Amino acid sequence: MSGHTPTTLAGVYTALVSPISPSGALSLRDMPALLGFQRNAGVDGVVIAGTNGEGVSLSVTERKRILEAAIEHADGLSVMAATGACALSDALALTRHAARCGAAATLVLPPFYFRGAPPEGLAAYFEAVADASDLPILLYSIPQFTGVPICDRLLGLLRGTPTVVGVKESSGDLETGRRLLADHPDLRLFVGSDLLFSKLMLMGAAGVISGIANAFPELLVAVARAVAGGSGVGEAQRRLDEAIEIITAYPIVGAAKAIIEARGVARFSVRPPLVMPDAAQVAEMMARLKERGFLQ
């Protein structure tokens, strides 16, 4: 058992990049530095092997190894495991492993190949994952990637599943987030679009799971603290939006890894089909970030 309860799932979580060396191999020796960079910025936790962690480009064995390394070096950070997979057997194996390792929760994608699967079939998948452990589950809604929305019908079918405690809403649509908060007050909403972070937090969201936090975790922490303190929210979000505008002009996971290197953490790469920004793009991005005061 994890020792965590659903009520502890809140705040700023970084959708952590995976430590992949330029050769394409895992570089788990760099996990302490990667986590230390996040911890020093004040984030509450990390998500392992999600979208920014290139989870779908990793084998089940690699996803287990990364999670084990993250939990070993968490040192106070809450660690959430992304355990969704197209094959239910893989999702079950990853979820059971996450429970054995002591993860705080799981973030679970729907099976994303059979896009026409009915809500009843998706509910059967999520119920099986829920039965695999007692870990709290966040459903991962990112339909622009999966083609499978987390719809009201599905949420209704899962209402009696006690470990389904929330949704990571990554569609980027403010109205979808607002409706989830209004119609499903029993679920914890984690914001998956950094541009909507402060707006949805002010509406009652539990927290954020952020990709931009890989590069600039302090910007997400600043927004969260401004919301909690009741002042400076607009300026904190505006500053975050500036960074987002720059980083998203480039291959985003690779761009984050280039910034992580520039900030002295470690040198990482990505796996195909993702690409790193080329040398000219990196130089241009760094110049823009320095001009706006994000880098020295």
Q: What's the architecture, going by CATH?
A: Alpha-Beta Barrel
**What top-tier CATH class fits best?**
Alpha Beta
Give the overall pLDDT as a whole number: 96
What strand line-up does the widest sheet have? Answer: 1-2-3-4-5-6-7-8
**Beta-strand residue percentage:** 5-15%
From the N-terminal CA to the C-terminal CA, the straight-line distance is 44 Å
Low-pLDDT residue intervals, each spanning 5 or more residues: 1-7
Secondary structure layout plus pairing:
Layout (H helix, E strand, L loop, with lengths): L10 E5 L15 H11 L3 E4 L11 H13 L5 E5 L5 H14 L3 E4 L10 H13 L5 E5 L1 H4 L5 H6 L6 E6 L4 H10 L4 E4 L5 H7 L3 E4 L6 H13 L3 H15 L4 H11 L16 H13 L5
Parallel strand pairs: 1-2, 1-8, 2-3, 3-4, 4-5, 5-6, 6-7, 7-8
Helix pairs in contact: 2-3, 8-9, 9-10
Description:
By secondary structure, the chain is α/β, with parallel strands linked by helices. The chain has one domain: TIM Barrel (Alpha-Beta Barrel), CATH 3.20.20.70. 44% of the residues lie in helices and 12% in strands. The chain contains 12 helices and 8 strands. The protein has helices at residues 31-41, 60-72, 88-101, 119-131, 143-146, 152-157, 174-183, 197-203, 217-229, 233-247, 252-262, 279-291, and strands at 11-15, 45-48, 78-82, 105-108, 137-141, 164-169, 188-191, 207-210. It has an 8-stranded parallel barrel with strand order 1-2-3-4-5-6-7-8, surrounded by 6 helices. Strand 7, helix 8 and strand 8 (207-210) form a beta-alpha-beta unit. Helix 2 (60-72) runs parallel beside helix 3, helix 8 (197-203) runs parallel beside helix 9 (217-229) and helix 9 packs antiparallel against helix 10. The protein is globular, with a radius of gyration of 18 Å. It starts with 10 loop residues before the first strand and ends in a 5-residue tail after the last helix.
